[in-house]
Design goal:
Strand order of the largest sheet: 4-3-6-5
Number of strands: 6
CATH topology of the largest domain: Chitinase A, domain 3
Oligomer: single chain
Order of helices and strands: EEHHHHEHHEHEEH
Strand content: 5-15%
CATH architecture of the largest domain: Roll
Shape: flat
Number of helices: 8
Low-confidence stretches: 1-25
Mean pLDDT: 86
Structural class: alpha+beta
CATH class of the largest domain: Alpha Beta
Radius of gyration: 27 Å
Number of domains: 3
Helix content: 40-55%
Largest sheet: 4 strands, antiparallel
Length: 271
């Protein structure tokens, strides 16, 4: 949403080195950059970039790859890879990756069913987890580039046009336009500017045009929630499903470990 302060894009390049040996067999891909005999191929670069990345993002990713490769080579030249401590860390990383691969192979392909009864039971038994710590509002908005446009759309709404339909047709906020301008439920801590803009608005009534650095907004507050009130099930359904799926995966992992214990020689030494 327009008020949200987006963090700098990060590409997680710390462990992402794409090395292609010179003279390797097979089809040759376009090489975007190289450091010595290490090549960054176009397909590998695209895999590092998020959907819709700009040319600036692309160039930054290439620069980051070159920098990381240079640092990697310098570490090798200094013999840091021969450090016993580093070798132990690398071995732990290798083991963790292999365990993750095993669990993905064992658990990743099977669907985990979560029933409505399970969701309701978890919700009823964990109300404190869903209690609001601060007041919240639920709102939606329409973003327009000029006050003239905002006034015209507000007149449409006053004549009975549906807020969601107007947002889908006219809002310039690409993040919320397709959902009818829905901003969701938020508190002051989530977005102070948006929170302040909602405070004096009547429920289910489009505001006067509100100007910000992004343009002119028509805002409609759909609901207000007091601190300590419990969020309704529909607002936390996704969170509950995620928790239940994790629990079921954990149960399956525990069962796998139990099976392996019966098959392998293992024990705990007396302390």
């Amino acid at each position: 949403m327009p008020w949200k302060k987006w963090s700098d894009m990060r590409f997680g390049l710390v462990l992402c080195f794409t090395l292609t040996a010179c003279g390797a067999s097979g089809p040759q891909e376009e090489v975007v950059a190289h450091v010595g005999d290490a090549h960054l191929e176009a397909s590998a670069l695209e895999a590092l970039l998020p959907y819709g990345a700009s040319e600036e993002d692309r160039q930054r990713a290439i620069t980051d790859w070159i920098g990381r490769e240079l640092l990697y080579r310098e570490a090798i030249d200094r013999g840091l890879h021969e450090s016993l401590r580093l070798q132990q860390q690398l071995e732990r990383t290798r083991r963790n990756l292999l365990v993750a691969a095993l669990l993905d192979d064992e658990l990743g392909n099977g669907e985990v069913d979560v029933t409505e009864t399970e969701i309701q039971r978890y919700y009823d038994g964990n109300a404190e987890l869903f209690r609001r710590e601060a007041p919240e509002v639920q709102a939606r908005h329409i973003l327009l580039s000029s006050q003239r446009q905002a006034n015209a759309r507000r007149n449409d709404l006053r004549r009975g046009a549906d807020f969601g339909d107007v947002a889908r047709s006219h809002s310039e906020d690409v993040d919320t336009r397709d959902s009818g301008g829905e901003l969701g439920v938020f508190s002051r801590a989530d977005d102070a500017a948006l929170w302040s803009a909602c405070q004096d608005l009547e429920l289910n009534t489009a505001s006067q045009p509100i100007r910000t650095e992004y343009g002119y907004h028509l805002i409609e507050v759909q609901a207000r929630y007091e601190a300590s009130s419990v969020r309704p099930l529909e607002q936390v359904r996704g969170q509950i499903v995620e928790k239940l799926v994790w629990q079921k995966h954990r149960q399956r992992m525990d069962q796998l470990v139990k099976t392996l214990k019966n098959r392998e020689d293992w024990g705990i030494n007396a302390q």
